[in-house]
């Protein structure tokens, strides 16, 4: 059994080539082949967002706090709230709402 203690892995700032605004990435776990799974807690400050990107093996977003928006290529912008789960392969953008919006 492997236990990763809270706070034992350093946080990183979301790189400017992938994010607009202030984003913090806290790694949670990473596996090697054949699973190749990766988990991270990503915190978006108000109005921060991602650049368009894809996840060929899929991506699962679990909203734990705040409100935000997601959009697939060619799809409508969808509001996401705490407790909601979103799965996608092609994402145009993921971002947070301004502070004034409530869940």
Tell me what you see in this structure.
It contains no helices and 10 strands. The protein starts with 11 loop residues before the first strand and ends in a 7-residue tail after the last strand. The protein is mainly β and 103 residues long. The strands form 4 sheets. Strands 1-3-4 form a 3-stranded antiparallel sheet, with no helix packed on it. A 3-stranded antiparallel sheet has the order 8-7-10, with no helix packed on it. Strands 2-5 form a two-stranded antiparallel sheet. A hairpin with a 7-residue loop joins strand 3 (23-30) and strand 4. The radius of gyration is 14 Å and the shape is globular.
Q: How would you concisely characterize the structure shown here?
A:
By secondary structure, this protein is mainly β. It has strands spanning 12-13, 19-20, 23-30, 38-44, 49-50, 53-62, 68-71, 78-80, 85-91, 93-96.
């Amino acid at each position: 059994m492997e236990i990763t203690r809270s706070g034992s892995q350093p946080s990183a700032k979301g790189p400017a080539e992938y994010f607009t605004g202030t984003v913090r990435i806290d790694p949670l776990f990473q596996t090697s082949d054949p699973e190749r799974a990766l988990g991270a807690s990503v915190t978006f400050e108000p109005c921060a967002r991602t650049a368009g990107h894809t996840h060929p093996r899929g991506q699962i977003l679990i909203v734990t706090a705040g409100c935000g928006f997601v959009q697939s290529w060619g799809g409508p912008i969808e509001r996401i709230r705490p407790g909601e789960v979103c799965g996608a392969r092609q994402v145009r953008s993921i971002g947070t709402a301004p502070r004034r919006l409530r869940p």
